[in-house]
């Protein structure tokens, strides 16, 4: 059983702050600054370019991939880190389409994160030749999986509402009609129990700066099922995905297995910060974390609804049908969130009217939840949000 009081002590949280935005950016692990500093001074500073060999920099993408793989139910050796989530979405989608050359339709839903849709729209436009992005409401995905679908591209947990797709059922439906299934785990990895191998996912992608606490700009990851690992054509044939990068061949030869999904130079400083965060995750039992997340989120919902009847729950009522976040609708949600932040409760806002709160048991407890409820009640019931400075939109919401 994971000791969540012990894990809380491993994070730096500013005094007086209740942090319910780990679903956007996880807080700093206390040991991360020293780890990154050591990398800068002892490795980069003293080893210079020899750090790629002496400090094991080149092996980090695979080593970190395996540690993330445990958290998402992946087979060892089938997750690699590096690049950004947008790049990994592009890789997975383009590779999957190449594996279904007789089909042209990509199925996604209107609750998917816009970046995934933008990547898909751009690829469809570039490919031409009848390729199509077909969008349906999240609850209509299952019936929309027909035998003309090449690939389903779905985010397991809706970024606005926290609504959770049934990965195993939808993957099975896709496979039954000959389609491939790609899953975006941006709001799943480190938040809920995930089993990409058990669900039969073909590809999965995700980021590490949210629940995994890798820091702003932390690298993304990609999973390729073992049955595809040596056949999936790498859509971005980068130098480090080559079978022998230092042979300096003029022609590309794809690396073995998941290695072919490497693209550019690994961001070593970010990877060392992520490495430090994963030291904490190595001791976490995901079933215990999920149970604790549900306890905290249920306490939060009950408290907010009792104190603030003007707020409307936007997330599924059943905790089994949502991820590790809770959203409420409020017509002045943006201003209200700014007022909450001013008073020490950090969540975030998603247009048009969503106030979103993340539940991360590694560093949250009942006292944090109760304090959050008090602050929300004060801001909403006393209309403290109704001030000009809270109405002005900032660059990041």
UniProtKB/TrEMBL annotation:
Pyridoxal 5'-phosphate binds at residues 85-86, 113-116, 155, 184, 187, 209, 239, 265. Signal peptide: none annotated. It is an enzyme of class 3 (hydrolase). The keyword Cell inner membrane does not apply. It catalyses: L-kynurenine + H2O = anthranilate + L-alanine + H(+); 3-hydroxy-L-kynurenine + H2O = 3-hydroxyanthranilate + L-alanine + H(+). Pathway: Cofactor biosynthesis; NAD(+) biosynthesis; quinolinate from L-kynurenine: step 2/3; Amino-acid degradation; L-kynurenine degradation; L-alanine and anthranilate from L-kynurenine: step 1/1. InterPro entries: Kynureninase, PyrdxlP-dep_Trfase, PyrdxlP-dep_Trfase_major, PyrdxlP-dep_Trfase_small. Its cofactor is pyridoxal 5'-phosphate. One of its GO terms (molecular function) is kynureninase activity. The keyword Hydrolase applies. Its EC number is 3.7.1.3. Keywords: Hydrolase, Pyridine nucleotide biosynthesis, Pyridoxal phosphate. Pfam families: KYNU_C. The modification N6-(pyridoxal phosphate)lysine is found at residue 210. It comes from the Bacteria. Catalyzes the cleavage of L-kynurenine (L-Kyn) and L-3-hydroxykynurenine (L-3OHKyn) into anthranilic acid (AA) and 3-hydroxyanthranilic acid (3-OHAA), respectively. NCBIfam families: kynureninase. PANTHER family: KYNURENINASE. Homodimer. This is Kynureninase. The gene is kynU.
